[in-house]
Design a protein that fits this description.
Layout: H1 13-16, H2 20-48, H3 63-84, H4 97-109, H5 115-138, H6 143-191, H7 200-209, E1 217-224, E2 240-242, E3 249-253, H8 260-267, E4 272-275, E5 279-280, H9 284-299, E6 308-310, H10 315-321, H11 324-334, H12 343-359, H13 363-370, H14 374-388, H15 395-410
Parallel strand pairs: 4-6
Antiparallel strand pairs: 1-3, 1-4, 1-5, 2-3
Helix pairs in contact: 2-3, 2-5, 4-6, 5-6, 6-7, 11-15, 12-13, 12-14, 12-15, 13-14
C-alpha cells in the first residue's frame, strides 16, 4: 500500500484478495470507532506531553481532536475505495490539509522544532494500529493484509507530516520576516540622528523586543557585496545586520570581546568593507560615519580593498585623507616654494623634506631612510633651506609641512624611497 500524500491510498495485493464483504465490515467497524479512538489518542498525547498547547475551534473542541478523527476516517475510507473500487457506505470527509498545517504553524510560532510534533504523530499511529488490528481480528482480515496496513499507515502519516512542515515553514518565514523588520528598526534608531530624542528606555524596549542585549560599546560596519546574490554572512544573532542597503550595514556589540575579532574575520571571508571605531552605544552613528569614509577611500584605491578592514588600523589615512579640500588648500600654501622647481626635482625635495621631518636626524639618517647617498641629501637639505628660509625652523610650519606631505604619500603622490624607484 502506498500513500505519498493525504488522500492517496493504493491497496496492496494482499488487500485485493480480501473478500469485499470483509473489507466493508472492517471499514464500518473502523469508522464507527473513529471518534472514540480519536479521544483515546488525544488523551494519551496529553499524558505524554502535558505542556502541549492545543488550540480550540469555534465550538471549543480541540482542533487536534478534529484532525485525528478525520485523519482516521479519511484513511479508512480511502482504503475501502482503493481495495474495492467503490466509495464507503459511511460518509467520511477527507481530512482538511489546513488542520495539520495549523499544527505545524503553531510549533513554528512558539519557537519549537517539529521533532515533538512528529513524535506525537507516531504515537497516534501506534495507538490507531492497535485498535485497527483488533477490528481486523474480529472480521477475520488475513494477517498479510494487516501487516501491509502498518506500512500504509506510516506512509499516509508522511503526507500529514508534509502538511505540518508546510505550515511550520510558513510560520518560520513570517516570524523571520517580522524579526528582521524589528531588528532593522532597532538599527535605524541606533544609527539615526540623535537629535530626534529617542530615549534610552525606548531603545532598551526595542532591543528587548528582538532579544538584543544593549552593549556598552559598539562598532558599525559598512560592507561591499562580493556579488548581487551573495549569501548573508553568518555573523551570529548578537550582530545586527541589514542587507537592504546598497552597502549592507552591521552593528557589532562589544567588538573587542574575547573571540569576537576572529569570529568576524571568519564570517566575513569573501566580503569587503570597513568597520568603524568602537564607540559608546549612543555614538553608534559616529562609528558608521567613519566606516563610510573608509569604504569611500577603498573604492578610490586609497585604502586596501578585497577585505573588511578596521578603521582603527588606518587612523592616519582616515584623518589625513578625509578633509580633502582643507588639505589641498594647506598644500598649496605650504608647498608654494616648490612651484618653481621641475616636477621630478620638486617630488624628490618633498620626499627628502618629509624624511627629515620624520627622522629629525642629519644627512646620514635621512639618506638611509631614502636609500640615497648622504651627499645627495646634504645638497637637497641646503636647497630646502634656501626655498623656505627661516620658516623651516618654525615648529608650527614644520607640523603643517609634515601633515600635507604625509597626506600626499598616502595618496601615492610621493614614493617611499628613491632606492625603490628605478632610474633615480
Amino acid at each position: 500500500m502506498c500513500a505519498a500524500r493525504p488522500g492517496v491510498v493504493t491497496a496492496p495485493s494482499a488487500w485485493r484478495e480480501v473478500p469485499p464483504d470483509r473489507v466493508r465490515r472492517f471499514v464500518a467497524g473502523a469508522l464507527g470507532e473513529a471518534p472514540a479512538l480519536a479521544e483515546q489518542i488525544l488523551d494519551e498525547i496529553r499524558r505524554e506531553y502535558p505542556r502541549l498547547d492545543l488550540p480550540l475551534d469555534a465550538s471549543g473542541e480541540p482542533l487536534a481532536l478534529l484532525g485525528i478523527r478525520r485523519a482516521i476516517e479519511s484513511f479508512v475510507a480511502l482504503l475501502e475505495r482503493s481495495a474495492t473500487g467503490r466509495a464507503s457506505d459511511v460518509e467520511s470527509p477527507v481530512v482538511p490539509p489546513e488542520v495539520f498545517q495549523e499544527f505545524g504553524r503553531g510549533e513554528g510560532l512558539h519557537g519549537r522544532s517539529l521533532d515533538s510534533l512528529q513524535a506525537i504523530y507516531r504515537l497516534g499511529v501506534r495507538l490507531a494500529w492497535r485498535r485497527l488490528a483488533e477490528i481486523g481480528q474480529r472480521v477475520e482480515i488475513p494477517a498479510p493484509a494487516m501487516y501491509e496496513l502498518v506500512d500504509a499507515g506510516y506512509e499516509y502519516l508522511d503526507g500529514l507530516v508534509d502538511q505540518s512542515v508546510r505550515g511550520y515553514a510558513e510560520a518560520a518565514a513570517r516570524e523571520a520576516g517580522e524579526r528582521l523588520r524589528l531588528r532593522r528598526r532597532l538599527m535605524e534608531m541606533l544609527l539615526g540622528d540623535r537629535r530626534r530624542g529617542d530615549s534610552v528606555e525606548a531603545l532598551a524596549e526595542r532591543a528587548a523586543g528582538v532579544g538584543w542585549a544593549l552593549p556598552r560599546r559598539v562598532a558599525v560596519g559598512v560592507l561591499l557585496r562580493p556579488a548581487r546574490e551573495a549569501v548573508a554572512p553568518a555573523l551570529g544573532e548578537d550582530v545586527l545586520l541589514d542587507l537592504e542597503y546598497e552597502r549592507p550595514r552591521m552593528v557589532v556589540p562589544d567588538p573587542y570581546a574575547a573571540g569576537r575579532p576572529e569570529l568576524l574575520h571568519r564570517a566575513l571571508a569573501g566580503w569587503s568593507g570597513a568597520v568603524g571605531p568602537p564607540v559608546p552605544l549612543r555614538d553608534a552613528a559616529k562609528s558608521l560615519r567613519w566606516a563610510e569614509v573608509a569604504v569611500g577611500l577603498m573604492e578610490r584605491g586609497l585604502l586596501p580593498s578585497g577585505e573588511v578592514l578596521h578603521c582603527t588600523e588606518h587612523t592616519e589615512a582616515l584623518v589625513l585623507l578625509q578633509p580633502e579640500e582643507l588639505l589641498d588648500d594647506l598644500s598649496l600654501r605650504c608647498l608654494a616654494p616648490l612651484t618653481h622647481c621641475g616636477p621630478t626635482h620638486a617630488r624628490r625635495l618633498a620626499e627628502t623634506l618629509l624624511a627629515w621631518l620624520e627622522t629629525r636626524g642629519g644627512a646620514p639618517e635621512v639618506a638611509a631612510r631614502l636609500g640615497v647617498h648622504p651627499q645627495t641629501v646634504r645638497y637637497r637639505l641646503r636647497r630646502i633651506r634656501e626655498l623656505w628660509g627661516g620658516e623651516i625652523d618654525d615648529p608650527d610650519r614644520r607640523f603643517e609641512l609634515e601633515l600635507v606631505l604625509r597626506a600626499q604619500r598616502l595618496r601615492g603622490e610621493l614614493g617611499a624611497t628613491d632606492a625603490e624607484r628605478p632610474g633615480r
